[in-house]
Structures are given as C-alpha cells and as structure tokens.
C-alpha cells in the first residue's frame, strides 16, 4: 500500500543522461530521459538523443550502444533546451548520483546564458539511507536487487524509468515520515562564502578526484584530493572555524574546479604532481624545494660503512639502492645523523662529523665502540650501521620489471592505467571521453614513493607485470 505522499515533494523530475565523458565543462550530453511526476502521477515523459558535435570514445559507444552515426540526425542541445527547461521547471531534480546529471545540465544551459537551479535528490544516497544493510547502491545493483525493469541499461530514458520504479517502491515500503527524514538529511547544505556561486556545489561530483580553490583574481589557493569530491569540499566550507588558515582560505574562495579520477590512487598521484607544478598558496605539506638533501651510503678505504650528504635537484632511479635518507633541508639531515649516532653508538669520525686525528671525541665519552681506531671490527660496525638506517632508507623495488596498475570507477566509465618502475611513474593512460597517454620523465619523487609504498600492498586488484 502506497504511503500518504502529502508530506513528500509533489513535483519531481526523474532524470538520466548519457554523455561523451565525465567532465561537465568539456563533454556534452548525447542522450536524455526525463519523467515528470506530479502528485504521484506521471504527467510528461521525454526521451531524446542529442548530437554533441564533438567526438567521443569507443568505450562510451560500447557502453551506451550510441554511435556518432546514430546521432547525425539528432537535434543539438540548443534545439531542445526550451523543452527540457520547461519539463524541469519547479520540480525536485531526481537522479542517481545527482551531481553528475545536474552539473551537466547546468553547464549545458549556461552555454546559452540560462541560469538553471533546482533542489536535487540523489537516489543513490536515498538507497544508502533507507537500505543501509546493503553494500552496493549503483543503478545495476538496484535493478538486480529489486527486480526493476530496464530494457536498455545505460540508455537515458530506461535508466530514468528505473529511478521512478525505485521511488514508487520506497513509497510502498516506508512511511512518509521516514522518507521525509531521509530526504531532509540528504539535502542539508553548508554555508557558502559570499563571493562563491551557490550553484557550484550542485555541480560537484561524488566521485574520486582532485579539486581546486581560486580567489576572485584567479589565484590558485588550494589543491585537494578525495574519494568523494563533493563531500570533501563541503567539509572545507562547513569547518572554516577550525583553524585561522582554513578560515582565511575559505573566506577567499570565489571559484571551485575539479578533475575526476578513476580512484584514490589516481587522485593521490594527480594531487602530488599538480601541487608541485602549480604551487598553490595554502598547500604546505606537498610543496617542496626543488633541491633535496640525500644521505648516500659509501664504504671507507678501511671497509667501514659511512654516509655522505649530497644536494640534488633530482634523483636518478638507478641510484636509489645507495640512498639511505632523503631530507628537505641540510639541518634536518644533520640532526638525523646526530640522532642515529647517539642511538646506535656510531662513530662520528667515520660519519665525517669529527675531523680530529686519532679517536673521535665520542670514543672518550664511551659513546663510540672504537671503529675510528680499528678497535671495533668493520663487519660488526657495518651490521649496526645498516640496522640504524634500515627504517629510513629507500625500500628496494619489489619487482624485477615495470608494473601496470589499473584503476576503474564504479561504472567502469573511467579507466586509468599507471606504469611504474623503481618507484617512478613513467606513463599514465586515461580512457574516458577519449584515449590519452601521458609519458613522464622517470625521476624519483619522494611523495610518489610514499604514495606507492602505502598503496601497493593493498592493490592486489588491477596490478600486472608489464
């Protein structure tokens, strides 16, 4: 029995679109389906292919079954936007992962100087809220779980019909109070800075990627990454009181942009690369000097292991087996050497920290075991030396050849491939709206090294030897 719907939104538009790719700025709509519902009754339906007048990848063609030839006689968006605008007018915009569909349509309208805004309702979030016992909530999962009818998956009108079926199901299954509470929770919004267009929040996707904050002069304030771009950006906007720097940054945000990635690894890699390249004002942790201080392992003429400090602008991957420490400053490197010397009773003369003749000063204090004057054998000293630097040294490369790491988003609409060798990213390939391959100079990067050492043990999926 259907619940009393008087407490629920009375005018809804169930919307689905298919596009040439993932970016609402650069890509275009190729298929749109709309079901307008008023007072629980379908009053209008719209099913239309759209000619994007730009190429799109074989992957999109295979997924949707829509080819460029299929769209030759279809209208462009400029021919149909008045009809679409009227269908959506005064409704709650309902879609699965609504930021994607809503963001695309806002950008399509914007190209014709039309400001479009609407309340939104995400059926993916609604499913998670009402059916929290289930793990997956993508559209295919809902179809299989509840037995919904969908003749052509990844065609816009058929997918929009699934959304209407889902909404009908929850109206039969749950009391209106529970649905209303779930909708209210989903539609909560943070305070938006005065100079930021409130509508920009509605364009942010709930997927992995990176985001950019700009001020009104287009200065880049910050680059961040997240598994859920929208959620992370909203947390910035709603927590500006937590620190003075955060408050200053949020106060100046005038524009937000983003790039979608296939997964967390792609977001981490892209953030690390772009922070160093673009040098945003509020990124501290990933902004690094072009110069690095390294500790390199050497062996003295008398057979004792030692370390020398070198200043480099880049590190050759073939040299990483000899590197036992990397530091952002000379002071940090020297302090580290002092710490290890004291903890492991290393010889300051062998480490180059004491230039006097004879035994080192620490030997007289009982802090050196006499390697400086040959009292301690090299074999015994070297074992302790290796133990001292074991935790901080660069780990050996796990593989005997380059590896390929493949990441896919939930719908496999975006696929990223990373070729990695000796902790260096040497090539990145992206497949979404088009195939692209980005060769990179194989230079060792400490941030990339940290990303890979944290992530590789957890990447049994999508990991291949080349």
TrEMBL record:
Q: Which GO terms describe its biological process?
A: DNA replication proofreading; nucleotide-excision repair
Q: Which residues form the GIY-YIG domain?
A: 206-284
Q: Which domain of life is it from?
A: Bacteria
The top of its lineage is: Bacteria, Candidatus Roizmaniibacteriota
| Listed GO MF terms | 3'-5' exonuclease activity; DNA binding; DNA-directed DNA polymerase activity
Task: Report the protein name in the record.
Answer: Polymerase III, epsilon subunit protein
* GO terms for cellular component: cytosol
């Amino acid at each position: 029995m259907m619940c009393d719907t008087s407490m629920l939104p009375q005018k809804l538009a169930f919307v689905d679109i298919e596009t040439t790719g993932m970016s609402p700025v650069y890509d275009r709509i190729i298929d749109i389906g709309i079901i307008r519902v008023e007072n629980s009754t379908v009053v209008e339906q719209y099913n239309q292919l759209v000619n994007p007048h730009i190429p799109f990848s074989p992957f999109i063609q295979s997924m949707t079954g829509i080819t460029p030839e299929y769209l030759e006689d279809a209208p462009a968006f400029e021919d149909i936007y008045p009809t679409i605008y009227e269908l959506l007018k005064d409704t709650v915009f309902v879609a699965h992962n609504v930021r994607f569909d809503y963001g695309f349509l806002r950008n399509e309208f914007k190209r014709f100087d039309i400001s479009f805004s609407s309340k939104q309702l995400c059926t993916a979030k609604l499913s998670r809220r009402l059916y929290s016992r289930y793990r997956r909530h993508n559209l295919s999962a809902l179809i299989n779980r509840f037995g919904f009818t969908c003749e052509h998956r990844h065609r816009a009108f058929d997918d929009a019909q699934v959304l209407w079926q889902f909404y009908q199901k929850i109206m039969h299954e749950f009391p209106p109070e529970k649905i209303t509470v779930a909708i209210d929770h989903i539609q909560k919004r943070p305070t938006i800075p005065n100079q930021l267009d409130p509508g920009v929040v509605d364009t942010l996707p709930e997927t992995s990627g990176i985001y950019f904050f700009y001020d009104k002069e287009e200065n880049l304030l910050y680059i961040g990454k997240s598994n859920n771009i929208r959620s992370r950006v909203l947390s910035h906007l709603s927590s500006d009181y937590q620190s003075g720097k955060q408050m200053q940054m949020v106060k100046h945000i005038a524009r937000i942009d983003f790039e979608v990635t296939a997964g967390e690894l792609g977001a981490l890699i892209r953030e690390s690369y772009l922070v160093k390249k673009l040098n945003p004002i509020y990124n501290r942790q990933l902004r690094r000097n072009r110069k690095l201080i390294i500790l390199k392992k050497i062996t003295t003429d008398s057979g004792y292991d030692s370390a020398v400090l070198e200043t480099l602008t880049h590190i050759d991957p073939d040299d990483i087996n000899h590197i036992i420490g990397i530091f952002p400053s000379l002071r940090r490197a020297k302090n580290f050497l002092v710490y290890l010397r004291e903890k492991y009773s290393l010889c300051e003369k062998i480490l180059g920290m004491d230039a006097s003749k004879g035994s080192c000063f620490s030997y007289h204090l009982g802090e050196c075991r006499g390697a400086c004057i040959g009292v301690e054998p090299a074999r015994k000293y070297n074992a302790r030396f290796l133990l001292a630097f074991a935790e901080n040294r660069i780990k050996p490369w796990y593989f005997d050849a380059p590896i390929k790491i493949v990441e896919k988003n939930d719908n496999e609409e975006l696929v990223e491939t990373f070729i990695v060798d000796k902790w260096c990213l040497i090539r990145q390939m992206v497949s979404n709206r088009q195939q692209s391959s980005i060769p990179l100079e194989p230079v060792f990067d400490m941030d990339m090294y940290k990303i890979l050492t944290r992530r590789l043990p957890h990447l049994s999926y999508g990991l291949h030897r080349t």
